């Protein structure tokens, strides 16, 4: 019943997007034409891969801070990804890591890109994020909470920081500095400006920052496309803005294939290339074996959440913590165990087959 309602809502949002387009002006700068976006997409073989955090990091700060940046693990784990044909990783940044050490942060980004490029992997970098813990702190990061999904992941710029426009000038300097430094870097596939705006109960309080980050990105005018993924179909105002100001349509969907197909059909109305930047939650019916072939058939990029079981604990489901830390009956996310062996060999065989490996 809920899903039937959601489908009706999707139809409504398609109409709402048209109305929005007729009654609003996009942010500063020029959204790529549909022809330009589709020509860009045709340069690449089928885009597929994972949202990547090395297994030794609990969150974005532990990944990017100098003391805990771990190129050896990144190299090893991206090698496992390359071996099954993954060619794209979606990687979250964090403004506090930049604020702490601006030049070092960019050097570590370059080092990451060098490693990824060695493994023939392109990168989607993510700037802001409304998910999970409200406040981040520079320095040593907490240890994982046993059996709890993403217990140490942190929002960026946090709550209430993301709602306070006094913070926007500093955030603009961050986005523009990083994007300007890498604006012609062919190792970067796409800039994902804001992950799940409005999540964690923020709703439309995230709208001002969302609009501003698109403005800042357009002022830089990178060679790479920009986007912000649609994810909550009842967020009408945010969805319309994201869809109409993105060069490439990105979105998240953790539902079963028949519902995922309806999202695809609705988003096709924009005429732009599409990349699903989050999917695959086994216990919710979104699996490699039923969704990944669908995305390939539809020529939609397929980026699943999670590569290697690690400190993020995302093998545990969002809403089913196991406080004793026992292995869940079925992993929620992730492809590989810490030693590089597949969680499910048949899944890895399918991924390799879809990638002609």
Automatic annotation (TrEMBL):
Biological source species: Pedobacter petrophilus
Keyword Cytoplasm: no
Identification of the protein by name: Cellulase family glycosylhydrolase
GO molecular function per UniProt: hydrolase activity
Region of interest called Disordered, as start-end residue ranges on this chain: 141-162
This protein's UniProt keywords: Hydrolase, Signal
Gene3D superfamilies for the chain: Glycosidases (3.20.20.80)
Domain of life: Bacteria
Coiled-coil region: none
Endpoints of the signal sequence: 1-21
